């Protein structure tokens, strides 16, 4: 495709008009760029003038141009230039408030000024060995060569700041307007160079709602196994961004439909259980996608401007991964999944560890998977206040997320059943609130602390103190707060059962 060059003021030549299906939409998109870049004009103009005075071009490039087109430009800007790294460092030294060079071996320097973070990278013309994803860094001499090596056409646009020239050699503007993902080079070449780009395609589908072209989809299906060249840390980073996108379900479906999930999250396609005519049950994979959708809706309803909740979204997606391993066909045509929450929690822990998630995320997500069934049975009316206390205690800091997960897990099409489940959970939350107000459930502790146990029993610090503490906590959960005299009497009773005679007080 021949280059299409646009003036950032909004004009475009006749060739560009002929090449753009919707000229009005394209002009609107261009004006978005102008408006968004004008918002950061002082910093951008200063930087452009600085480089122009040295005879160097400076382009705002890649995701920054794409996000400006979409009206979602943030405070981090990406630039590219023909100037070599040491020259860029010298130009930035007196201009920026802070400069860092941690990426200088790849031709990238970072800087901060006026509340804006910039990264400036020398034109690249890298080559790849294709046995790993590590490029041989080669600096280039043209913007066209630099844009050709980028992952997708929507990330292969640039604006030359000093002249306002809009450079779009691969139709990225058109693809952005039409919400399409395509590659500047043939996708087979692009993905062979860096297989992580296939996962990025799913991530951009989730973040932006864009659809990959057929040639991109075909290449992803044929080359899915190449993703195994990528380190788990890089896979995890892309998967997390995907799940935190505005449309995470789209990204997940793309992973499964192309076969990428078989290599990065095989538990997902494994949930697509066959359902025969005699053993009807919900499709577990489809159910999990609906739960993910509903969890995201609840999250946004609770805090429309809040950050995406990665832990909740992972738990929603994985809460039933134990079902395939526990499915049993019962006499009479029923199907059971006994203890799938226990098996699922173990599977979740194993997979998230393999993806190098932090200990905190592994623990929180697996705990939610383990707890997600605990609520069922509440509607039968046999939960005591003790059961409610234990529910709160076991959930701990995850209780708000567990509330959302349990509500999201209601996917029945039977409206009467759905209303009954929601009423039951409304009632449980009301009971939790009532008991919390009376007993400070957020900090369920024994009525006596460790130091008091040591003094009252006349024992040395050690394991026995912990046993006594845990016993008193169980009593607290069962009976609620005790008067101090009653707590001491219970401690003495337990001690005598252990063969300990408390000293006279």
From TrEMBL:
Pfam families: HD (PF01966), PolyA_pol (PF01743), PolyA_pol_RNAbd (PF12627)
Record region (Disordered): 1-23
Keyword Amino-acid biosynthesis assigned: no
SUPFAM superfamilies (alphabetical): Nucleotidyltransferase, Poly A polymerase C-terminal region-like
Highest taxon of the lineage: Bacteria
Molecular function in Gene Ontology: metal ion binding; nucleotide binding; nucleotidyltransferase activity; tRNA binding
GO BP: tRNA processing
Keywords: Coiled coil, Magnesium, Metal-binding, Nucleotide-binding, Nucleotidyltransferase, Transferase, tRNA processing
Gene3D superfamilies linked to this entry: Beta Polymerase, domain 2, cca-adding enzyme, domain 2
Domain HD stretches: 284-394
Keyword Protein biosynthesis: no
Amino acid composition bias (Low complexity), ranges on this chain: 7-19
Coiled coil: 418-445
Cofactor needs: Mg(2+)
Protein name per the record: Poly(A) polymerase
Native source species: Actinopolyspora xinjiangensis
Lineage summary: Bacteria, Bacillati, Actinomycetota, Actinomycetes, Actinopolysporales
């Amino acid at each position: 495709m021949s280059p299409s060059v646009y003036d950032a003021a909004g004009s475009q030549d006749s060739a560009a008009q002929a090449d753009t299906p919707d000229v009005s939409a394209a002009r609107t998109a261009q004006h978005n760029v102008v408006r968004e870049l004008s918002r950061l004009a002082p910093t951008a103009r200063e930087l452009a003038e600085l480089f122009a005075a040295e005879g160097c071009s400076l382009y705002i490039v890649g995701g920054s141009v794409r996000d400006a087109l979409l009206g979602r430009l943030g405070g981090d800007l990406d630039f590219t230039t023909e100037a070599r790294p040491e020259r860029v460092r010298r130009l930035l030294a007196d201009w920026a408030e802070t400069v860092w060079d941690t990426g200088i071996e790849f031709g990238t320097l970072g800087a901060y000024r006026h509340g804006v973070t910039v990264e400036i990278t020398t034109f690249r013309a890298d080559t790849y060995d294709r046995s790993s994803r590590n490029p041989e860094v080669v600096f280039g001499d043209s913007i066209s060569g630099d844009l050709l090596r980028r992952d997708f056409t929507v990330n292969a646009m640039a604006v030359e700041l000093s002249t306002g020239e809009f450079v779009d050699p691969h139709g990225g503007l058109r693809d952005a307007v039409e919400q399409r993902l395509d590659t500047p080079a043939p996708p087979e070449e692009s993905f062979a160079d860096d297989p992580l780009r296939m996962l990025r395609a799913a991530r951009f589908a989730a973040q932006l709602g864009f659809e990959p072209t057929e040639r991109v989809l075909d290449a992803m299906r044929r080359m899915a196994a190449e993703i195994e060249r990528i380190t788990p840390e890089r896979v995890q980073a892309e998967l997390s961004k995907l799940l935190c996108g505005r449309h995470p379900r789209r990204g997940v479906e793309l992973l499964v439909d192309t076969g990428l999930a078989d290599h990065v999250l095989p538990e997902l396609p494994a949930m697509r259980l066959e359902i025969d005519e005699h053993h009807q049950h919900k499709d577990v994979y489809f159910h999990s996608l609906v739960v993910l959708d509903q969890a995201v809706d609840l999250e946004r309803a609770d805090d429309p401007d809040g950050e995406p909740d990665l832990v909740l979204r992972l738990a929603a997606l994985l809460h039933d991964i134990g079902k395939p391993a526990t499915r049993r066909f019962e006499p009479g045509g029923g199907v059971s999944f006994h203890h799938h929450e226990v098996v699922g929690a173990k599977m979740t822990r194993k997979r998230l560890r393999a993806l190098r998630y932090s200990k905190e995320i592994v623990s929180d997500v697996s705990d939610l998977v383990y707890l997600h069934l605990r609520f069922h049975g509440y509607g039968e009316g046999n939960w005591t206040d003790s059961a409610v206390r234990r529910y709160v205690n076991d959930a701990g800091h995850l209780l708000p997320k567990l509330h959302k997960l349990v509500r999201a897990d209601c996917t029945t099409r039977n409206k009467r059943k759905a209303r009954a489940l929601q009423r039951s959970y409304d009632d449980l939350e009301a009971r939790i609130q009532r008991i919390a107000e009376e007993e400070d459930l957020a900090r369920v502790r024994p009525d006596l602390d460790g130091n008091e146990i040591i003094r009252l029993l006349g024992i040395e610090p050690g394991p026995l103190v912990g046993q006594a503490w845990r016993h008193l906590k169980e009593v607290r959960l069962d009976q609620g707060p005790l008067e101090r005299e009653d707590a001491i009497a219970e401690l003495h009773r337990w001690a005598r059962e252990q063969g300990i005679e408390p000293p006279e007080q």
